[in-house]
Amino acid sequence: MKILIIEDERELAQSIATYLTDENYRCEMAATYDDAISKIDIYSYDCILLDLMLPGGDGLKVLEELKRLQKQDGVIIISAKDSLEDKIAGLHTGADDYLAKPFHLSELGARIYSVIRRKQFGNSNILQVNELKIDIPAKKVMVSDKPVTLTKKEFDLLVFLIGNKNRVISKAALAEHLSGDMADMLDNHDFVYAHIKNLKKKLSEAGCTDYIKTAYGMGYKWEQ
Amino acid sequence: MKILIIEDERELAQSIATYLTDENYRCEMAATYDDAISKIDIYSYDCILLDLMLPGGDGLKVLEELKRLQKQDGVIIISAKDSLEDKIAGLHTGADDYLAKPFHLSELGARIYSVIRRKQFGNSNILQVNELKIDIPAKKVMVSDKPVTLTKKEFDLLVFLIGNKNRVISKAALAEHLSGDMADMLDNHDFVYAHIKNLKKKLSEAGCTDYIKTAYGMGYKWEQ
DNA sequence: TCAGCCCATGAAAATCCTCATCATAGAAGA
DNA sequence: TCTTCTATGATGAGGATTTTCATGGGCTGA
């Protein structure tokens, strides 16, 4: 489970990160608007903690960017004051929850858990792309109502590509997502080729072709 | 994020700076030993890139100076040769990571990211437990200075257990950590048994026993 | 003591990663 | 424009790792 903490007060961000790491989440941090935007452009998170008061730009624009990218990341706004306008604006722009500072870390933990759970078990967890249907909580894939059995990595790859549809994802980013390890950004990424190939093969055998495009020298893309 | 590049080859320093600036870091450069010392005396950096072969003084002395000043700056050594002695000396003197020339800029970027992140989370890079030594960036484990080869999951498990030493970790938490997937909190966790068993076996074959305790009905614990 | 759950273990199956080889896109130059 | 060259991607096979499964032993509470 990956969390992005968008927060410019370093001490707060760090104590949140420490707490969440203890709770077995993987955390990343962004301290500025630009940093936040570049991270959400590249990666996907299970939950994003968003401070609305950011140096370099309005936090609400981060929400708009998420929406524009059609990202499914859960978002919890953490705002300096319990401003009703902020709350309404935030929830309206696509946030999943709202938490006013100061808050207890355990409360934050509970909210995160609930956002992720809602995302996982809610109705929005079935992706449908023409003849392709993906039930994320159940980890099942159907093509024209016939089941296709994918391995865990293949399934992850598929969901990740679709979650970033029409955008090229670099091989390194795919490698990192699949291995869950930043260190693997460094080594060789041959295994990505293998998973792409196997996924393409299984999908096309089921009659679902031409979605995964190779962007030579850049990565792969789900095109729709 | 501020980076100090201590490197006398001007072209290399410049191309690193250009790359890192693109990645939204602020860069400063030092081309000589004296220049480096005066900069670290005055300023603090999120990460320092240190070439050990410097005109005017040994790069390791820069590390000693940092230590003397009790600075917390992260340090990545970029060494002309892939010399084991350099690595060991560097890491012992307080560097956070090392990188042998020539390297890809993206690799450097990943290491910087990881060093900064680790600093934020307060983790260190080499764990030592009596006869057991773990080099996290290199993913190497030694028992009484003899290498032990662990698989990725075994390594992850070991680091996670030690990172929570003297605390019982539930099987579900271990399962989630190893699989990187919250959904696996629900299913069966038999594979944890297998990894625990294999890790115990490899460690004890190397002469490192009795650290991993089973807490019946509750989980496992690294006891020290 | 005994029942019932929990863990340990070995082996087999499934999955994943690596490696060597081949194919192809894009770049560079004629 | 055509050819050649180089880096990148595709592919299949093999080995390594991970996960599952079945069986047996041990802990704990009644």
From TrEMBL, chains A, B:
Q: Which UniProt keywords apply?
A: DNA-binding, Phosphoprotein, Transcription, Transcription regulation, Two-component regulatory system
What superkingdom heads the lineage? Bacteria
Q: Which PROSITE patterns match?
A: OMPR_PHOB, RESPONSE_REGULATORY
Domain OmpR/PhoB-type, first and last residues per copy = 124-224
What SMART domains would the database entry show? REC, Trans_reg_C
Q: Which organism is it from?
A: Niastella vici
Q: What is this protein called?
A: DNA-binding response regulator
Task: Output one GO MF annotation.
Answer: phosphorelay response regulator activity
Q: Residues bearing 4-aspartylphosphate?
A: D51
Extract one GO BP annotation from the record.
regulation of DNA-templated transcription
Cited InterPro entries = CheY-like_superfamily, OmpR/PhoB-type_DNA-bd, Sig_transdc_resp-reg_receiver, WalR-like, WH-like_DNA-bd_sf
Residues annotated as DNA-binding are: 124-224
Question: Which residues does the UniProt record annotate as the domain Response regulatory?
Answer: 2-116
Segments traversing the membrane: none
A Gene Ontology cellular component where this protein is annotated is: cytosol
